[in-house]
Structure formats: structure tokens, C-alpha cells
Amino acid sequence: MSQAWKSFELRCAKKLSLWLTDGACDNALVRTPVSGGWPTKHAAGDITANDDVDVPEKERQCAKAFSRLFVVECKRRKGVNGGWTLEQLVTAKKHPIIEWWKETTELANRLACKRMMIITKGVRGKPFVVFGDDEMRFLKKHIIPSEEGSEYTYPAHVLFSLPWLNEKLWAFSFNDFLKQTSWIFPRERA
Asked: What is the rounded average pLDDT for all residues in the chain?
């Protein structure tokens, strides 16, 4: 595994940690050392909860709850001119994201009751987060606007309709998604 790939996974784990903990902790989630999970700890995906005692208990429990709910896969691939845009993802005739979703679905099914999240980025492109219909229903129930009184309108784009799964894949700008939403499950907001 290249250093760039590991760096991308580390950055995603840090950003998701800050999102989960309202900025309180940047290491509640960590890059899974072995792709596919730690067999002894039953972790799955590229990012999992950090069991380190240096992580405050409240943030550690929040990360564990998130890791029980989501399989997070990070996919960094070279695209057109080193990156790709959301429009290229939507209009591409053949893109690896469909294969990635199949693999992530198989992993989630093996683990039972897991939802999926794919964070993807070109070498020089901006990252996107991809969810399916089930994840979108969950997110609409468990995320709130970051600013009091503002309304989050889900600026997502349908990437693909997957007849074999009877669902659609949705893509968000990863950074915009993290800025415009807050995780409210399972912890309570003050």
C-alpha cells in the first residue's frame, strides 16, 4: 500500500473524528492497520474506532457506535488529469465505484446491519462521499444542520441507479458534507 493511500485514509479518519465529536477529538477514529479489518477486534473497512485510552470515553463510545453502524471504505484512484469531478463520476460510462459498492455491500452483509460509506478521491481531486438509499434514509433521520436554525437540503447527486440492488448511489462533496452536518446519533446534543 502506498504512502499516499495511507495518508488519504488517515486524513479521512481525522476529519470524520472531528465531525463525530463536534471538534473535540481528532483521533476517535483511526485507519485500520490491515485492510479489511482487525480480525481480533472485528473491525471492518478502512476506518474504525480507536480503542486507545488517550481518547476520552465519551468520544470513544461515539466512535464505537459509528463503527458498528458504518463500514467506511476509502478509495483513492487516479482519474482524468489526476483527479475527477462529480460530473465525471455521474457521466462516466464505466467507473470503479459500482464495483467498490458491490464489494462494500458484500462486506456489510457479512457483518450484518452495517451501512456503507465510500470516500473517494482522485490523486489531485476533491474527495466525495458516496451513500446508498438506505444510508440516505438513515442520514436524513440522524444528521442535523451545523448552524442553529439553518436547513440542510442534501446537495447530493444521484450517481447510478443499481437495478441489481434496487437502489441508487448518492454522492456529496465530502468536505461540504462534514461542514454542513452534525452527527447526533447516539449521543445527545447539549
From this structure: 76
Query: Alpha helices, DSSP H only, in 52-188?
Result: 57-69, 86-91, 97-111, 133-142, 174-180
- Residue 181 contacts residue 145 (beta carbons within 8 Å): yes
Q: Which residue has the cell 452534525?
A: 182
Look up the pTM and report it.
0.81
- Residue 143 half-sphere exposure toward CB, CA atoms < 13 A: 21
Percent of the chain with pLDDT over 90: 19
d(CA 43, CA 40): 8
Pairing of strands 128-132, 115-121: antiparallel
Distance of CA 127 to the CA centre of its chain: 10
Distance CA 154, CA 148 (A): 17
110-131: average pLDDT: 82
- Could you tell me if 25 and 18 are in contact, meaning their C-beta atoms sit under 8 angstroms apart? yes
> What b-and-e string marks burial along 24-38, b requiring 16 or more CB atoms within 10 Å of the CB?
ebebbbbbbeeeebe
